[in-house]
Design goal:
Layout lengths: L2 H29 L20 H9 L2 H32 L5 H10 L5 H14 L6 H5 L6 H12 L3 H9 L4 H12 L1 H17 L2 H6 L8 H7 L8 H33 L3
Helix pairs in contact: 1-13, 2-13, 3-7, 3-10, 7-10, 10-13
């Protein structure tokens, strides 16, 4: 690639990076600017930075409990999806049966159904089970993931079957092959699904909003929406909550980014 082309590409990437990073920087700056509002003069370096907004956030609202609620649901949803997706992916990849491709195609087709279409039947089901205003009611619809099954099945299909045959000769059954051979070899795909599942649960808004009624049981997106007043909004407090909501996602992605990139690349190879 010629130098002018490299320079142009570098400039485009740099501009894109700045454009994507600026909202996060503005959120952080607003959170430490006392009395900040939309009508205030934009200042990237606040004249009198303060952490009062964070103190007000935790003093006037059960924000710590809300964060723990979101964290618990995200961890539980992630573990559940990893378990169900890995087991189903192994079945589709290593235990062929008549019509398996058709079943797999139908299962993937459910990814095209938006959650808004399922809200009413899901609500009726959760209400019938007596799980309204409970975290279990929020958790149940997210236990299985069609995307997770697809992602892990693609990763498992790339694992040589000769390893299975050698393990079978040594007397290993499916559970041993699954746990000691297949899973260790699809670590990047598991890390990718972990990030996606955690992010989906952490940012979920509509379903928890419908199921949860008590403020102490609410999740972070609902609590942040509640910080917006009808007539006035304390933007520094709202942005403080936004900063706290972003931190776990940044941490988990920084930790797993190498595995995410490797997992996406590997699952695209036949």
């Amino acid at each position: 690639m010629r130098k002018p082309a490299v320079l142009t590409l570098t400039i485009v990437v740099a501009v894109g990076a700045v454009a994507m990073f600026f909202p996060f920087l503005w959120t952080l700056v607003t959170s430490v600017s006392s009395g900040a509002g939309l009508s205030a003069t934009p200042q990237l370096i606040p004249a009198d930075p303060s952490l009062d907004a964070y103190g007000e956030l935790f003093d006037n609202t059960p924000f710590l409990q809300v964060v723990l609620n979101s964290l618990g649901l995200a961890v539980a949803t992630t573990l559940a999806q990893l378990t169900t997706s890995a087991l189903a992916a192994y079945a589709f990849s290593r235990l062929p049966f008549r019509g398996s491709n058709l079943v797999f195609g139908i299962y993937l087709a459910t990814m095209m159904i938006p959650i808004q279409v399922l809200i009413v039947p899901l609500f009726v089901e959760i209400k019938t089970l007596g799980l309204l205003n409970t975290h279990l009611g929020v958790l149940l619809p997210g236990i299985a993931s069609a995307f997770g099954v697809f992602l892990l099945r693609q990763a498992m299909s790339a694992v040589p079957r000769e390893l299975d045959e050698a393990a079978t000769i040594d007397g290993a059954g499916h559970f041993r092959i699954f746990g000691t051979i297949v899973l260790p070899l699809i670590g990047p795909a598991l890390a990718t699904l972990t990030v996606f599942a955690f992010m989906s649960s952490w940012n979920s808004f509509l379903w928890p909003l419908i199921v949860l009624r008590t403020p102490e049981l609410q999740t972070l997106p609902i609590a942040l929406a509640g910080l917006q007043g009808q007539y006035t909004t304390e933007w520094d407090v709202l942005m403080a909550g936004s900063v706290i909501s972003v931190l776990p996602m940044v941490a988990i992605y920084v930790f797993a980014q190498r595995f995410v990139i490797q997992g996406v690349a590997n699952t695209g190879i036949k």
